[in-house]
Protein backbone atom coordinates (compact mmCIF):
# COMPACT_ATOMS: atom_id res chain seq x y z
CA UNK A 1 0.00 0.00 0.00
CA UNK A 2 1.26 3.49 -0.89
CA UNK A 3 0.26 6.70 0.89
CA UNK A 4 -0.33 9.52 -1.55
CA UNK A 5 -1.51 12.88 -0.23
CA UNK A 6 -3.74 15.40 -1.94
CA UNK A 7 -0.70 17.66 -2.05
CA UNK A 8 1.16 14.98 -4.05
CA UNK A 9 -1.69 14.86 -6.58
CA UNK A 10 -1.95 18.66 -6.82
CA UNK A 11 1.80 19.18 -7.20
CA UNK A 12 2.45 16.26 -9.57
CA UNK A 13 4.66 14.45 -7.05
CA UNK A 14 2.55 11.29 -6.55
CA UNK A 15 5.38 9.11 -7.84
CA UNK A 16 4.10 7.95 -11.19
CA UNK A 17 1.68 8.05 -14.10
CA UNK A 18 3.52 10.75 -16.03
CA UNK A 19 1.86 12.49 -18.95
CA UNK A 20 4.23 11.05 -21.53
CA UNK A 21 3.61 8.48 -24.24
CA UNK A 22 2.37 6.10 -21.53
CA UNK A 23 -0.11 8.56 -19.97
CA UNK A 24 -2.95 6.33 -18.71
CA UNK A 25 -5.53 9.03 -19.52
CA UNK A 26 -4.75 8.82 -23.24
CA UNK A 27 -5.16 5.05 -23.58
CA UNK A 28 -8.17 2.73 -23.63
CA UNK A 29 -10.55 5.60 -24.38
CA UNK A 30 -13.59 3.29 -24.24
CA UNK A 31 -12.97 2.43 -20.60
CA UNK A 32 -14.85 4.12 -17.77
CA UNK A 33 -12.95 6.15 -15.19
CA UNK A 34 -13.41 3.35 -12.67
CA UNK A 35 -11.97 0.70 -14.98
CA UNK A 36 -9.06 2.94 -16.01
CA UNK A 37 -8.22 3.85 -12.40
CA UNK A 38 -8.47 0.27 -11.19
CA UNK A 39 -6.36 -1.09 -14.04
CA UNK A 40 -3.73 1.63 -13.72
CA UNK A 41 -3.34 1.27 -9.96
CA UNK A 42 -3.14 -2.52 -10.25
CA UNK A 43 -0.82 -2.67 -13.28
CA UNK A 44 1.27 0.50 -13.50
CA UNK A 45 3.76 0.72 -10.63
CA UNK A 46 4.97 4.02 -9.27
CA UNK A 47 8.39 5.06 -10.54
CA UNK A 48 9.42 6.95 -7.40
CA UNK A 49 8.42 7.37 -3.77
CA UNK A 50 5.54 9.87 -3.48
CA UNK A 51 6.82 13.35 -2.69
CA UNK A 52 10.34 12.84 -4.03
CA UNK A 53 10.10 13.65 -7.76
CA UNK A 54 7.98 15.90 -9.97
CA UNK A 55 6.28 14.45 -13.04
CA UNK A 56 3.26 16.09 -14.69
CA UNK A 57 0.35 13.67 -14.30
CA UNK A 58 -3.08 13.92 -15.91
CA UNK A 59 -3.94 10.68 -14.10
CA UNK A 60 -3.13 12.24 -10.73
CA UNK A 61 -5.60 15.03 -11.46
CA UNK A 62 -8.18 12.46 -12.52
CA UNK A 63 -7.71 10.83 -9.11
CA UNK A 64 -8.09 14.24 -7.48
CA UNK A 65 -11.46 14.64 -9.18
CA UNK A 66 -12.57 11.28 -7.78
CA UNK A 67 -11.43 12.31 -4.28
CA UNK A 68 -13.56 15.45 -4.57
CA UNK A 69 -16.53 13.27 -5.55
CA UNK A 70 -15.97 10.86 -2.66
CA UNK A 71 -15.50 13.61 -0.05
CA UNK A 72 -18.37 15.83 -1.22
CA UNK A 73 -20.87 13.23 -2.43
CA UNK A 74 -21.31 15.28 -5.64
CA UNK A 75 -20.15 14.87 -9.21
CA UNK A 76 -16.80 16.61 -9.69
CA UNK A 77 -18.13 19.12 -12.25
CA UNK A 78 -21.19 19.98 -10.13
CA UNK A 79 -19.09 20.52 -7.01
CA UNK A 80 -16.52 22.73 -8.76
CA UNK A 81 -19.21 24.81 -10.47
CA UNK A 82 -21.15 25.42 -7.24
CA UNK A 83 -18.33 25.74 -4.73
CA UNK A 84 -15.36 27.15 -6.60
CA UNK A 85 -16.45 28.78 -9.86
CA UNK A 86 -19.56 30.38 -8.37
CA UNK A 87 -17.30 32.04 -5.76
CA UNK A 88 -15.41 33.56 -8.70
CA UNK A 89 -18.63 34.83 -10.27
CA UNK A 90 -18.31 32.29 -13.09
CA UNK A 91 -21.50 30.51 -14.08
CA UNK A 92 -20.82 29.04 -17.50
CA UNK A 93 -17.62 26.98 -17.33
CA UNK A 94 -18.19 23.29 -17.99
CA UNK A 95 -16.52 20.04 -18.94
CA UNK A 96 -16.20 19.58 -22.70
CA UNK A 97 -17.93 16.76 -24.51
CA UNK A 98 -16.34 14.03 -26.64
CA UNK A 99 -17.65 15.02 -30.04
CA UNK A 100 -17.81 18.06 -32.26
CA UNK A 101 -21.54 17.46 -32.66
CA UNK A 102 -22.10 17.71 -28.88
CA UNK A 103 -19.82 20.63 -28.08
CA UNK A 104 -21.10 23.61 -26.08
CA UNK A 105 -22.67 26.52 -27.94
CA UNK A 106 -19.62 28.81 -27.57
CA UNK A 107 -17.00 26.06 -27.74
CA UNK A 108 -14.42 26.06 -30.51
CA UNK A 109 -13.99 23.25 -33.01
CA UNK A 110 -10.78 21.40 -32.19
CA UNK A 111 -8.26 20.62 -34.93
CA UNK A 112 -5.32 18.28 -34.41
CA UNK A 113 -1.87 19.85 -34.51
CA UNK A 114 -0.33 16.89 -36.36
CA UNK A 115 -3.39 15.60 -38.27
CA UNK A 116 -4.62 13.64 -35.24
CA UNK A 117 -8.32 13.67 -34.39
CA UNK A 118 -8.80 15.47 -31.04
CA UNK A 119 -12.31 14.03 -30.81
CA UNK A 120 -10.87 10.55 -30.28
CA UNK A 121 -9.77 11.63 -26.79
CA UNK A 122 -12.27 10.70 -24.07
CA UNK A 123 -12.35 14.23 -22.63
CA UNK A 124 -15.34 13.50 -20.38
CA UNK A 125 -13.24 10.85 -18.62
CA UNK A 126 -10.33 13.32 -18.34
CA UNK A 127 -12.60 15.95 -16.73
CA UNK A 128 -10.52 17.09 -13.73
CA UNK A 129 -7.24 16.87 -15.64
CA UNK A 130 -7.95 18.69 -18.89
CA UNK A 131 -11.66 18.84 -19.54
CA UNK A 132 -12.78 22.37 -18.65
CA UNK A 133 -13.87 24.84 -21.32
CA UNK A 134 -14.02 28.55 -20.59
CA UNK A 135 -13.60 31.92 -22.23
CA UNK A 136 -10.35 33.80 -21.68
CA UNK A 137 -12.19 36.22 -19.38
CA UNK A 138 -13.46 33.34 -17.24
CA UNK A 139 -9.96 31.87 -16.98
CA UNK A 140 -8.45 35.19 -15.88
CA UNK A 141 -11.24 35.78 -13.34
CA UNK A 142 -10.84 32.31 -11.88
CA UNK A 143 -7.03 32.58 -11.73
CA UNK A 144 -7.19 35.92 -9.92
CA UNK A 145 -9.70 34.55 -7.43
CA UNK A 146 -7.78 31.28 -6.88
CA UNK A 147 -4.55 33.19 -6.28
CA UNK A 148 -6.30 35.49 -3.83
CA UNK A 149 -8.12 32.75 -1.87
CA UNK A 150 -6.59 29.31 -1.71
CA UNK A 151 -9.89 27.44 -1.96
CA UNK A 152 -8.66 23.85 -2.18
CA UNK A 153 -8.98 20.88 0.13
CA UNK A 154 -6.39 20.56 2.95
CA UNK A 155 -3.15 19.23 1.50
CA UNK A 156 -2.42 17.04 4.50
CA UNK A 157 -5.30 14.64 3.79
CA UNK A 158 -4.07 11.16 2.90
CA UNK A 159 -5.48 8.72 0.37
CA UNK A 160 -4.47 5.11 0.25
CA UNK A 161 -4.19 3.30 -3.06
CA UNK A 162 -3.82 -0.44 -2.95
CA UNK A 163 -3.40 -2.67 -6.00
In short:
The chain has 163 residues and is mostly helical.
Question: What can you tell me about this protein's structure?
Answer:
24% of the residues are buried. This protein has six helices and four strands, in the order E-H-H-H-H-E-H-E-H-E. The chain has helices at residues 6-10, 33-43, 58-72, 76-85, 123-130, 136-148; strands at residues 2-5, 94-95, 132-133, 158-161. It has a single domain (2-161), classed as DD-peptidase/beta-lactamase superfamily (Beta-lactamase), CATH 3.40.710. Helix 3 packs across helix 5. It is 38% helix and 7% strand. It has 163 residues and is mostly helical. It has a two-stranded antiparallel ribbon. Strands 2-3 form a two-stranded antiparallel sheet.
Amino acid sequence: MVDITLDHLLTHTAGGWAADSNDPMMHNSGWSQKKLITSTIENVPLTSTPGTQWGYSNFGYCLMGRVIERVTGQWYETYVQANILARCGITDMQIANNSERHRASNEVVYIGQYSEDPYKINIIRIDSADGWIASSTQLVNSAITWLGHRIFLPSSSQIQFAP
